[in-house]
Amino acid sequence: MGQWIQLNTSRMQCIAAWLARPAGTPIGGVVVAQEIFGVNAHMRSVVDRFAEAGFTAIAPAFFDHVESGVELGYDAEGFRCGRALAGEVGLELALADVASAAESIASSGRIGCVGYCWGGTVALLAATRLGLPAVSYYGARNVACLDERPQAPLMFHFGANDESIPPEAIERHRAALPEAEVHVYPAGHAFNRDVDPAAWHAPSARLAYERTLAFLHFHLAGGAE
């Protein structure tokens, strides 16, 4: 459904982005913030699925600032490379790309952000700094950002068995952001990653997606007014 495009960024650099449009008039737009594995086949399928649900969706390839065409697997080498690239790009540059991507699909209506893992923290910052309604899936770097006040609604999805986000970290989200929706599932980290049998937890992924769609419909389609 989707296709690669070139996205002009605020740093005067073009990066790749995966863009998918709905069959009819869009409900709104969704910027998808990638995991540390690049805009790989799984991330592209996430974008396509949001388009199938009625949203214009786009995933900027954050790693293009360092290395183009990155698509990593979920083995030890993929984790090592992904963490290194995420550290080199940094949250600030990734967030600037979210802003550029949101601007590129502004004609679709209201824009939100949905991010996964590293991108989950990018999504949190999209709400606190860009004013975009945002859904953060298991953002392990969120805690350091919880002193920032949201300018838009937030939803969080966590796995109860996620060793990278212990229960006390989840409680810190609730304490710091009482207005946010915080959901916890009987799953581990990356439970939405349906191409990774070691991580995917189908019931949790399904429920989280249903809640995410309801959130996006409400805040992007005008129900929040």
Task: Describe the protein's architecture and organization.
The structure is a single chain. It contains 5 helices and 8 strands, in the order E-E-E-H-E-H-E-H-E-E-H-E-H. The protein is globular, with a radius of gyration of 16 Å. The mean pLDDT is 97. The protein has helices at 41-52, 76-104, 118-129, 167-176, 202-220, and strands at 3-8, 14-20, 29-33, 56-60, 111-116, 134-137, 154-159, 181-185. It is of the alpha/beta class and 225 residues long. It has one domain: 3-Layer(aba) Sandwich (Rossmann fold). It has an 8-stranded mixed β-sheet with strand order 1-2-4-3-5-6-7-8, sandwiched between helices. The protein is 36% helix and 20% strand.
Offer a concise description of the structure:
The chain has helices at 41-52, 76-104, 118-129, 167-176, 202-220, and strands at residues 3-8, 14-20, 29-33, 56-60, 111-116, 134-137, 154-159, 181-185.
Helix content: 25-40%
Low-confidence stretches: none
Count of individual helical segments: 5
Distance between the termini: 31 Å
Helix- and strand-based class? alpha/beta
CATH evolutionary superfamily: Alpha/Beta hydrolase fold, catalytic domain
Radius of gyration: 16 Å
The overall pLDDT, averaged over residues, is 97
**Percent in strands:** 15-25%
Strand order of the largest sheet: 1-2-4-3-5-6-7-8
Order of helices and strands: EEEHEHEHEEHEH
CATH topology: Rossmann fold
Layout of strands and helices, then pairs:
Layout: E1 3-8, E2 14-20, E3 29-33, H1 41-52, E4 56-60, H2 76-104, E5 111-116, H3 118-129, E6 134-137, E7 154-159, H4 167-176, E8 181-185, H5 202-220
Parallel strand pairs: 3-4, 3-5, 5-6, 6-7, 7-8
Antiparallel strand pairs: 1-2, 2-4
Helix pairs in contact: 2-3
